[in-house]
Amino acid sequence: MPAEVTWWGHATCTVEDSDIRVLTDPLFARRLAHLRRRRGALPPPDAWHADLAVVSHLHADHLHVPSLARLDPGTRLLVPRGAPRAVPGLRRLPHLRVTEVAPGDEIAVGDLRVKVVPARHDGRRLPLGPHRSPALGYVIEGEARTYFAGDTGLFDEMAKEVGPVDAALLPVGGWGPYLGDGHLDAGRAAEALTRLAPRSAVPVHYGTYWPIGMDGVRPHEFHAPGDEFVRLAALRAPGVAVHRLGHGESVRVEVAR
């Protein structure tokens, strides 16, 4: 069966490849602190089922303990090294098989291999906390090679660290139009395509959650990054097929032969 990507909103995707279901940065909440889900229905219970879940970094919208608690008993969970120490709630999830990983690690799950790669992002749980865990990306390799970038900025060794990929799941937004270092906006994500040269790309991490009270203040800026990424990618990386998925929509990954 060809590899397939489903986007559930924010940075949460299911990558199905080689009869293995991989879930990225599971977030199944209507509300998270000052953020509320404004686009797309909550992922259905079927989305909670995975053979493997991966967490890119410790920010609460990527490592969300209540969402992880919904995963099936026995699900394997990859988290950045040091995460259980920095996030005590992880230690209260004994039904999961938690493995701490760092860049350079490779994990086998059935016929699938997952390569852990670096990301350029502040991986701390709290803004003023110590750096105890790295921010990560993951390359999921089976029938296809799919890169989940997590949250990252551009960095010089990106193409070398990630390697050749068939599909790239790239963050293109956040809580508004002004993103600092350590993030990809639509323009920087399009630049990432020129470096990575995948066959296809899916924009993620936009148009799902934004702050309570901001509904009437230029709300288009929270979901516009997807369209802007499509436009800029066509200019800068015209050979890449960009799929702007709706919440819950899927696309098959084209594989180089």
Automatic annotation (TrEMBL):
InterPro entries: Metallo-B-lactamas (IPR001279), RibonucZ/Hydroxyglut_hydro (IPR036866). It holds the Pfam family Lactamase_B_2. Residues 21-206 form the Metallo-beta-lactamase domain. This is MBL fold metallo-hydrolase.
